[in-house]
Amino acid sequence: MSAATTLGVPPADSLAMLLRALKLPTIGRHAEEIGHKAEREGWSFGQFLHHLVELEVHERRRRRIERYLKDSDLPREKSLATLSRSRLPPKVAKMLPTLCEGGFVERGDNLLAFGLPGRGKTHLVCAIGHELIQRGYRVRFTATFALVQRLLAAKRDLRLEKELASLDGYDAIILDDIGYVQQSRDEMEVLFTFLAERYERRTVIITSNVVFSEWDRIFKDPMTTAAAIDRLVHHSVILEMTGGSIRAEAAEQAKKAGAATTTAATTTTATKEKANTEGATSTATMADAATTTTGNHSTEERDGEI
Fold it and tell me: How many Å apart are CA 209 and CA 218, to the nearest integer?
């Protein structure tokens, strides 16, 4: 925007136009308000400018995090706040704060979470993913089979390289449940290509209920299996999720709660029925007494007439 563009425009409007041109909307919204505050409190120009720029930076960070969260496909409910840390294995609980800082992402290391179904692997890596986004990293969550199908479609359309370049924009990609995928050779090849492309450059976070010794059922070929494991394990952090099934325990607790509710409801119903029965008996007794009294009065009246 040239100086001529703002000729004849009031200073306040001119400043707003210039700030929009510089893509500084937050400063534009708060400049007048902060200017009055600076005058009242006797700020220096440097303090005034610093405060405005700080507001702009904070607002940009907030919008960026909001955009990253929306783009990540991370389940909002699987965060660090909802993670039951007391259920984590001690070693994992000890490592969690360090992992949330994101140093392994800076190094391009991988994170592998192993354990039987229901041990909380997905919740754990999603919670870490949320914390990474808060620290400015781009994260993408996807089921492994969905990523494989996406890459396979790209390969058929002769745009696999472009798709891999798009995925390369994420600092960390979470592949959930790699053990549930038993690919054909074409699917196995695109998954291996993806892992090889990110090797030592970008982070892959994987959850699996299948140990490495059984990964030949995923990649089919022993040589490809060995190469994939080698690339993942080299520069990686491995988390072993032991203990009981969280889902099974939650189901058991829900079952017990339901049984307790049923028992309470049955007891309440029985109490009400007993109360109703006793009330009916009492009413009948009172009615009988009233009838007897009435009969006695009638007899006395007849005796009086005689």
Answer: 12
Domain(s) of CATH 3.40.50.300: residues in the chain: 85-247
Q: Could you give the angle at the alpha carbon of 197 between the alpha carbons of 192 and 200, nearest 5°?
A: 110
Residue found under tokens 């007897």? 292
SS3 state at 58: helix
CB 174 within 8 A of CB 139: yes
Smallest Cα–Cα separation from 78: which of 17, 44, 45, 120?
120
Q: Cα-Cα-Cα-Cα dihedral of 116, 140, 127, 111, to 10°? A: 60
* CATH class name, domain 85-247: alpha beta
pLDDT (tens digit per residue) in 193-249:
999 999 999 999 999 999 898 888 888 788 989 999 999 999 999 999 997 777 666
Q: Is 36 in contact with 44 (CB distance < 8 Å)?
A: no
Structural contact between residues 170 and 139, judged by C-beta atoms closer than 8 angstroms: yes
Q: DSSP E strands: which ranges in 168-232?
A: 172-176, 203-208
Helix H, strand E, coil C: the string for 14-30 is HHHHHHHHCCCHHHHHH
- Rounded Cα distance between 288 and 236, Å, is 88
Distance in angstroms (rounded) separating the CA atoms of residues 295 and 288: 11
